[in-house]
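Re-running S26 family signal peptidase to confirm reproducibility after the cluster update. Everything else is unchanged from the original entry.
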Amino acid sequence: MSGDDRPSASDDGDEDGPGVLVYVTDIVGSAGAVLLVGLLLFAVSGVWPPLVAIESPSMDPHIEKGDLVFVMEEERFAGANAQDGVVTADRGEDYVRFSRPGDVIVYAPDGNNQTTPIIHRAMLHVEEGENWYDRADSAAVGVADNCRQLTNCPAPHDGFITKGDNNARYDQVGSSPISDPVRPAWVVGTAEWRVPLLGEIRLGWNQAARVSAAETSVDAENTTVAVA
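Result of re-run:
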């Protein structure tokens, strides 16, 4: 058979076969690479997921909205003067994380794992029944003039007093505190480093998922759903 007489790939529909196979192989390979990286990060950090996307500006300018932050289990490589694996700002003047003293921790507010975790700096560690007003930064307690006027003082239990670098008050004070003093069991881990803007991809996926879920709920219940 001469070269001109041989059937071409398009004659029997085989042209797309190798292309589809390469495409599927690329997808599987990429997914495998992502999974491998995730498993390696988990092995190092001891936390899953080891990367979190920042949704708010409460830690500006040191950690910004849209950053992707690597989180490590707090007991791993804990700094000097650590309490339950966390170095608080008042005990770590020479222990600087994200441009200020003290560890930045990720925690479940009031231990509720169903809510969005908070990423704020650990400022103080308090003990159950402690009057910690005199140890507090007067600028971060709001209008309270003494322990009696300060929310969560005396401390209801052992835990950390936390604060966003860009926030005026501690998380534990005010008429609607973000959380009680953060028990060690509520701490997910400590923030170690950040990648600017890369978290926007994750936030975009989350927003798309919320919109999809909201639309599904509207269709199912015939009600109006507000999407945050």
